[in-house]
Write the structure tokens for this entry.
Amino acid sequence: MRDILLVALIAYAIGNFSTSYILGKLIKRIDIRTKGSGNAGATNALRVFGKKIAIVTFIFDALKGVIAVIIGEMLLGDMGGLIAGLFAVIGHDFPIVLKFKGGKGIATTIGAATFIHPIPALIAIIIGIIIIIITKYVSLGSVSAISLVPFIGLIIIRPFNLEYILFLTALALLAIIRHKSNIKRLLDGCESKIGEKAK
């Protein structure tokens, strides 16, 4: 139990490193959470700061998931990697250092899930990208991709791995919860499309 708590705390601390917030403060002297959608993530960074900062944000946020999983696996094996991946996303979404107002965890989820088992994650990413290209809605592509990963895992992962499927399901549920305002705007027809500048 002590090892599990240690892995969870380390991963949560890694997740607290908010790339878009730090870059916004250092480069633009802006708290990204006060602009655009108010989300401290790559999509809002694209709207508020432009492509360069958005790309750096996505890369570093994804790396948080990868680094957390590596540390978790080193300390506690495969189960440690799953726990670390989940808590890195929780740390990104609800960072104590930013009063629990963080991002929506998509990049960190991609990093963790892809590192643990790349095939289901990559299939979902491709589907998500196609949806984004067709609809221009990043939120729709992101939520669709993350929601599909557990089902893809069920189909292609052999032998069956219950812990991995539960991990993916937890990430999917977390993504849906964090995107509930986006889902409402999509249903209302007022969600922002990719490329639209923040007001």
